[in-house]
Every structure is written in C-alpha cells, then in structure tokens.
Design brief:
This protein is mainly alpha-helical. It contains 33 helices and nine strands. Among the domains are: 30 residues, no CATH class; 169 residues, P-loop containing nucleotide triphosphate hydrolases (Rossmann fold, 3-Layer(aba) Sandwich), CATH 3.40.50; 65 residues, no CATH class; 86 residues, Winged helix-like DNA-binding domain superfamily/Winged helix DNA-binding domain (Arc Repressor Mutant, subunit A, Orthogonal Bundle), CATH 1.10.10.10; 102 residues, Alpha Horseshoe (Serine Threonine Protein Phosphatase 5, Tetratricopeptide repeat). Helix 7 links the parallel strand 4 and strand 5. The chain is elongated, with a radius of gyration of 38 Å.
Length: 715
C-alpha cells in the first residue's frame, strides 16, 4: 500500500511539472474555460505577439440567397446613401407586399460583393478604404434576422449574431453575459444587423438593444409601420409603370408564360398596373393565378378589385387586428373618396372626432394603410389609399351598406358647405383651387347621390359648384349634374333651386352645346319664376343671360331691350358693377352689328370700371377688345391687349377665356407674319377647346389654322 502511494505521488509530481512547463500556473478549470473561448477576431490565437495581422478575406454573413430583382434604382440609391450616412439606423417601410425585403436583400448583396472586393484589396495592399470604389458601404459581417414567421426576441438576435461572428460559446452564456459579450464583439468590427419584418417585434429589450447599438455597427430594418424617429427612412410605394411591366415580363419568362400581349396592350396593362398598385407581390400573385389556375386577365383583375385571394390575408390580416375601433371605421369608409382626402373630409364621413380621429389616422399611417402627404400644415395634408388597400377596405364597406350611406350623406353636406365657402356658387374664383383638389371626390359623390336616392343632397351639392364647373371648363359634368339637379328641383317643387339651376346651370350649358333655342327657353322659364317671386337680383341675372342668348341668335333688338331693362333695374339696386356688365354686353352687341369702332370705345371705357375690381371679367373683356382691334386691323394693339388679357385669364384659370384669347392671338400673329408664335397660340387654343369638350366649330377652325401655319413654316 505504501509502495502504491509512493508511486502515485511520484507520477503526480511528474504530471504537475509537465503541466507547469506546457500550461503555466493555471488551474484545470481556468484552462478548460480558455479552451471554450474562440480565437480573437483577427483569427490569430496568439495575437498579442503579432503586431500586424493580415486581414481575413472572409466576409461573415447569413444572408438569404439573392433574388431576381427588377427596378427600384431610385430607392436602391436612397438605401445605399442611408447606409453610408452618419445614421446608424436605416428603415425601409411600406405596405405589405410592396417589396421591402426584396429591396433590402438586393442592397445587402451589393454591399456584400463590395465588401469582398475591399477585403481582397486589404489582404493584398494593407490599405483600409472605408467605402468601396463604387460608393457602396462595406461591412465585415452581415447578420440577417427575421420576424416574418415567428416571434423574434433579443435572445434570438444575440444568438444569431454570435453564430454569424463565429463565437458559438456566447450562445451558452446567461442573458446578461451574453449581451455584454455580443456588444464587445460588435465594437471590434463594422457589422450590419438586419431585422426583417420589424413591425411584428414586441420584445422591448430588443427595441432598446437596436436603439443602443454600439459603434461601428449599423442596423437596417424593414417594417410595415412607421415609428422609429431615430431611423433614416426610405419609404416604398408602388413601382413605376415601366418597372412593373418589366417585372411582368420577367415573371412570365420564369413561369413559362407569354405575356407580351399584355405588355403591348396599353389599356389592359394600365388596368393591371392600377389594380396591383405597382406592388411586386400583387404582380407576382396575379401572374401566378394565370399560370397555376388558368385564370384570364379579366378574372385576375376582378379578384384584385374584389379583394379575393390569399394575398389580401397576407397583407392585411395582422394590420387589421392591430387597429382600434375608430381606426377600423375610418379605414372602412375611406373608399367613399375617389381620390385623396383631407382630414376634415375624413372626419365628416367617418363621424370620428378630436383625439380619436388623430389616433386613428396615426395608426393607419404608421401601418401604411393610409399614405399621408408631406404638407406640414395639417389643414392641407392629404390621405389616400394604395389600390390594394382600397380593394380590401371596399370589401369591408360592402358588408356595411348602412355605414356607407350614412358616410356619403354626411360627406355631401360637408362638401356643399365647403364649396360654398370657396365660392363655387359665385364667380369668386380665388379659392377655386381648393375645390379643384376635391373635384374627383365631389363628382363621384354627386353621381352616387343621384343613383342611390339622395337626389336632394345631389341637387344641393350640384348648385354649390355650378359656377366652378363652368369657370374651370368641366362642361360635361356641369350639364350632366345640372340637368339631374334641375329635374330633382322640378319634381320636388323646389322653385328657388329650379330657377337658379335653369339660369346659371343648364340654360347656359345648352347654349354652349349649340342649342341656343333650348337654352333661351330655359332662361325664359327661370326669368318667369324670378318675376313671380319678385326677386330683383334673379331678374337682373336672367335678363343678362337672356340678352346674350338673343345676341347669339342675332335677335339684336330683343337683346338690346333685355340689356336696357337690366341696366335700369341694376341702377335701382345701386349695383355699379352689374351696370358695367350690361354696358359691356351693349358694346358686344354693337360689334355683332358691325359697329366695331363704337364697340371698341365702349369697351375701353368699361375697362376703367372693371380693372382692379373683377379680374375674371376683366380678362374676358380684354379678350373681346383684342378681337375687335384685330378686326379693325390694329394688330399691334390687339396683340398687346390680348397678352394682357391672357395673363389675367391664366391667373384666374378660366379655361374658356384662355382658349378664346389664345385663338385671337393666333390670328393676330398670323396677320403679323409671326407664324411660329401664331402656331404656339393656336395649339394652346386647341388644347383648351378640346378639354372643354364643346365648341366644335372653334375646334375645326383652329385645326385648319394650325395646318395652314405648319405649311407656311415648312416652306
């Protein structure tokens, strides 16, 4: 036994001696812990003894494979610029299916390729340029994490970082030590952390970790929501049409479909583009339906418009579940707007007010269910739906017909008041731009009112924009809605509204359409109503328009009687401006009868009253004066006066006056042999006449003049 103990002690002594020789004064536990530690970041375990280690050629990453990417050159440049900037956090945001992840991957693979090139350059030359030659930011490591299909927390991200950076031992450490060790490794080299689908992350610790990411690290996140103020954001919207068509062709090649006919069919390709809103996922889904299920283009478009298909569940299901009840109501009623909408209009339609409205709009914008314009002034900010979101919201609205009806009736009342405040039922054109911005919403709402049994609302709304539609040249809409509104007033025995609509609406519209006889009869009916009501203002207005109709009929004596009667009545009302309007009509009557010099002198006197008081009437009066000077042969004067009138007309945006004066200037310049200038004015006149949709005789005359001018210029 003693011999055995003596032998064991001797062996232990020898082993201890050998341990000290090879491992130094370290315990077994210390040695074992060291063995668990990975090599230093430069790949050399004995780095303390190496002053200039060679850089590694390997760029560490776990990026998903590169995809077949199309377009988005502008957005790619924006992301690259963000990664190169001093911002440590970059966010790509947008609605689901808009291509955030695809864009991120394309940018990351471009950065990865550049990083490999720089790493090879460093290994060969020992130089350290911070950015690659093509201006793409480089990193030593790319760490991809995604919350697409699972809950993502801080521990998951820390483990992924440890594995990508090749420090697997860190994954076994307690939470506090793990975070400390990861941060220490991130501080040693420039790394890019990517968090895909960040909007689903609920772990506050992960949020804090990203916001406190240590230098020189950076982070790129994709999200369906806005909300990280510290981030430099790149917001994605639909692809440009050209890019979308290229994607369609590429998908066709990938799936073995010949989609050339779709790309070349302008009407169908436009419908396809509008239905998908340029969203890459929707484009791929639609083409997949054609391939896998044999659907026609029409069938696919119907599915998109009706929000049918699993794509809508993917894009919207989670977002809908996150909305408050007021936000759900706002989103549901948004399809009642044909175009973008103001906050005030949304409030009226949605019947959601004050802070609840602000919270609802905030939620919808953050989740990209509504897109907000960039105006700082809240009153001018506009909100609109992506086409896919519109289809989804429309599917919700179709399930609540009573809600839709209530929303539209409230909105009709709102727009009626809004249009009247903006002068839509008078010649007060200064705020017509505000109505112009809402015209698509108003026109569609009026159509709904007349179709769905809300004729009184439709009639009142029509009346509120009658002058606007005439002034801005929406003559088809003016006649269409004016006729229906007048019929409603007649059926409902709304005498005042009927007289007003006959006079200011369809009576004058019929004259513009070329049916002077019918227009005259409607104006006479209006005059009779006003006379029965003893409405002096109505009578004056009716006499003015009736006199113009009679002048166009060349019933000059009757026209003169209307004007003279109107002047006496306007004087009794002490209305100097209306008196000037009638005197202008008498001068135009003189011109129609061939007394051009008398007409010229009369208009010159009237201009002293009009200038500075009514720019719209001044513009048209200057136009008449220019035309009379041209007919008298005073072309230089006609050109000067015409240009003055054209500038006023362009300022007020009265389309008919712009067209008429441009036409006069075209003939004037032709007479002065300034053919190039004449052609420009003639083309401008034709453009406006064609937009107005009426004045067919003027259109043909202007086309003839353009042909003649082009022949002269070609010689």
């Amino acid at each position: 036994m003693d011999v055995f103990l003596t032998l064991a002690a001797a062996v232990a002594g020898v082993l201890s001696f050998l341990w000290i020789i090879f491992f130094g004064q370290k315990s077994f536990r210390e040695w074992l812990n060291e063995r668990k530690q990975p090599p230093p970041a430069d790949g050399n375990r004995d780095s303390e003894n190496v002053l200039n280690p060679a850089p590694s050629r390997t760029i560490l990453h776990n990026l998903p494979p590169r995809t077949n990417f199309v377009g988005r050159e502008r957005e790619k440049k924006q992301v690259h610029e963000a990664l190169k900037s001093r911002f440590y956090l970059t966010m790509i945001d947008g609605i689901g299916g808009i291509g955030k992840t695809s864009l991120a991957l394309e940018v990351l693979h471009e950065c990865l390729a550049a990083s490999h090139l720089v790493a090879n350059h460093l290994a060969a030359n020992q130089k350290n340029p911070p950015v690659s030659e093509n201006g793409v930011q480089t990193f030593d490591a790319f760490i991809w994490t995604s919350a697409r299909d699972r809950e993502l927390n801080l521990n998951d991200v820390l483990d992924t970082i440890a594995r990508v950076l090749d420090y697997p031992f860190i994954t076994q450490l307690p939470a506090g030590e793990k975070r400390h060790e990861v941060i220490k490794r991130l501080q040693q080299q420039p790394c890019l952390l990517i968090v895909d689908n960040f909007e689903t992350v609920t772990d506050e610790e992960l949020h804090r970790f990203i916001l406190d990411l240590p230098e020189p690290g950076k982070c790129l996140i994709t999200s369906r929501t806005l909300g990280l103020r510290q981030a430099r954001s790149v917001s994605l919207r639909g692809m440009a049409k050209e890019e979308a068509l290229l994607l369609i062709q590429n998908e066709g090649v990938r799936l073995g479909l010949n989609l050339q006919a779709l790309a070349e069919d302008e009407q169908n390709s436009q419908r396809f583009y509008e239905a998908t809103g340029g969203a890459p996922l929707a484009i791929r889904w639609a083409i997949g339906q054609i391939k896998q299920r044999g659907q026609s283009i029409e069938g696919v478009l119907n599915s998109l418009h009706g929000a049918h298909g699993d794509i809508f569940e993917f894009i919207f299901q989670r977002a809908w579940s996150l909305l408050s009840e007021p936000a759900k109501q706002i989103l549901t009623i948004m399809p009642v707007f044909a175009a973008s909408a103001s906050k005030a209009a949304i409030e009226a339609a949605g019947d959601v007010h004050h802070w609840e409205l602000d919270e609802a709009l905030g939620q919808l914008v953050e989740l990209w269910l509504l897109e907000a314009s960039e105006q700082l002034d809240e009153a001018k900010r506009r909100y609109q739906l992506h086409p896919l979101t519109r289809a989804y919201a429309q599917s919700k609205l179709s399930q609540a017909p009573e809600l839709e009806s209530q929303a539209r009736v409230r909105l009709a009342g709102f727009f009626e008041k809004f249009a009247i405040e903006c002068g839509g039922d008078t010649w007060a054109w200064e705020r017509y731009d505000e109505i112009e911005e809402e015209k698509d919403n108003i026109f569609e709402l009026m159509e709904w009112c007349f179709e769905k049994g809300e004729e009184i609302s439709g009639m009142r709304l029509t009346k509120s924009i009658t002058y606007f539609t005439s002034f801005r040249g929406y003559l088809y809409e003016a006649f269409n809605f004016g006729s229906r509104a007048a019929e409603t007033a007649r059926q409902k025995n709304r005498t005042n509204e009927l007289a007003w609509l006959l006079l200011h609406g369809i009576g004058w519209d019929e004259i513009n359409r070329g049916d002077i006889e019918k227009g005259e009869n409607l104006i006479r009916e209006s005059l009779k109503i006003y006379e029965n009501l003893d409405d002096s203002k109505g009578i004056v207005d009716a006499l003015h328009n009736l006199g113009r109709a009679l002048r166009f009929k060349e019933d000059f004596n009757s026209a003169r009687q209307c004007y003279e009667k109107g002047i006496q009545l306007a004087k009794s009302l002490d209305d100097e401006l209306t008196v000037a309007f009638f005197e202008r009509e008498l001068s135009l009557l003189a011109a129609a009868e061939g007394r051009l010099m008398e007409a010229k002198e009369g208009l010159e006197v009237i201009m002293t009253t009009l200038l500075g008081r009514n720019e719209s009437i001044s513009a048209s009066t200057l136009g008449y004066l220019a035309e009379i000077n041209y007919k008298l042969g005073y072309c230089d004067i006609a050109f000067e006066i015409g240009n003055q009138g054209l500038q006023l007309a362009q300022k007020t945006k009265k389309r008919e006056t712009i067209a008429k004066i441009s036409s006069t200037l075209a003939y004037t310049e032709t007479h002065r042999s300034n053919y190039k200038s004449a052609l420009s004015y003639a083309q401008q006149a034709l453009e406006f006449y064609e937009k107005l949709g009426l004045f067919h005789q003027h259109i043909e005359e202007t086309k003839t003049l353009i042909n003649q001018l082009q022949e002269k210029l070609a010689k």
